[in-house]
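Propose amino acids for all 113 sites.
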């Protein structure tokens, strides 16, 4: 295994990502849901380029494709965070409570400690 593919247990324990509330946007629940689908499609397309599933005759190099996958994944995450802001600000949803429930569910299912 290469050093890049070796992960310590501590490194896999948790990943914290902080993404900003975007300015100069007026997202709705519907527009944000559609944007998540668009970004998810772009993520799938990037993975397809890695695996030669995009219908193109030539595949991307793995390193280049993985960079593209990572960028598209961050776009999906940013859009999901934007939807969280919409839920909080427009619908009064307590996301802290939802996140706590989510972590409890993951622990109950044995997916994390």
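Proposal:
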């Amino acid at each position: 295994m290469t050093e890049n593919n070796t992960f310590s247990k501590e490194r896999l324990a948790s990943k914290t990502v902080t993404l900003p509330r975007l300015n100069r946007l007026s997202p709705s629940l519907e527009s944000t849901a559609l944007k998540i689908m668009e970004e998810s499609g772009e993520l799938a397309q990037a993975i397809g380029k890695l695996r030669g599933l995009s219908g193109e005759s030539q595949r991307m190099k793995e390193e280049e494709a993985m960079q593209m996958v990572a960028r598209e994944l961050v776009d999906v995450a940013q859009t999901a965070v934007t939807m969280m802001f919409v839920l909080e600000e427009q619908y009064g949803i307590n996301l802290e409570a939802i996140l706590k429930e989510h972590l409890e569910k993951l622990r109950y299912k044995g997916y994390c400690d």
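The radius of gyration is 17 Å. The CA atoms of residues 7 and 13 lie 10 Å apart.
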